[in-house]
Amino acid sequence: MKKFVLILSIFLVMGLLQACQKPQVVTILAPMGSPALALIHQRNNPERYAVDFVNGADPLVAAFGSKSHDVIIAPTNVGAKLYQGGIEYLFAGTITWGNFYFVSSTPKTLEELDQLTVVVFGQNQTSDIIVRYLFEEFDINVTIEYVDSVQTAQALFLADSTKIILTAEPSLSVLQSLRPNIYTIDLQDYYQQASGSTSYPQAGVFVKKSLSKQVINSVLSDLVLSIDSINELVSDASDVAVLLGYPYSKEVLLQAIPRSRLLFVSAMDSKSSLEAYFTLILGVSPQLIGGVLPNNEFYYQP
Fold this sequence. Notes:
The chain is of the alpha/beta class. Helices cover 47% and strands 21% of the residues. It is globular, with a radius of gyration of 19 Å.
């Protein structure tokens, strides 16, 4: 805990020094889930950051249009599509990598889902894209039942454990705390087999163009420090998240954080992985990224 407090103290001091140089509270909007776990330190530093969490993609899309927040964490394809429409945000890096899982009450492989019905949340979102891509690549025929959110999928499974649902962290860890004897299929393993890439850039950091580079670079540096310390000191980070009112128990967070695949990778270092993922989308549902790969201006460069 002492090491965590030291890291957090450094983080706070850096923020205060930056604030003294140029007083500004940076506003951040992120979806509740894995991206929210990456922002524990930011949520704990109100002198420097005002962090809001939402459920679903619609509030994120609305925020891009209204420019309500300086920084928006969103699915990378959503940001790319809106960029094609002229939003005032740039892609500054990837914050979470793939963490989708199928859950069932009996052990199964992906191939054994052939001819079955699966529940998938987020039609035409990242979750749906990855699922449809993998079913096509492995020649698996399934019936997909779509629901609006991962929470709805979880509720369906709790009501009827014969269902097979798609979930993601931290919802997977919540479900395992309620039903310990469930089985999972890690879609990232199959994605690596199909694509040759270790994972896909699931959620990205989008920064308002009007922010100064000094502010943007400071935000990104803080993200690196925050995510590194959260991954290294999972128990202490979980304690802070509970104190901040995150809607998860410490036991859930201890499982969810390591499986959330939190890693900040800058825009330019993410570019090859992002373009590979976007090329996949172009072959499945090109409208989900606006029909073309985003140009070089999409990527923030320090």
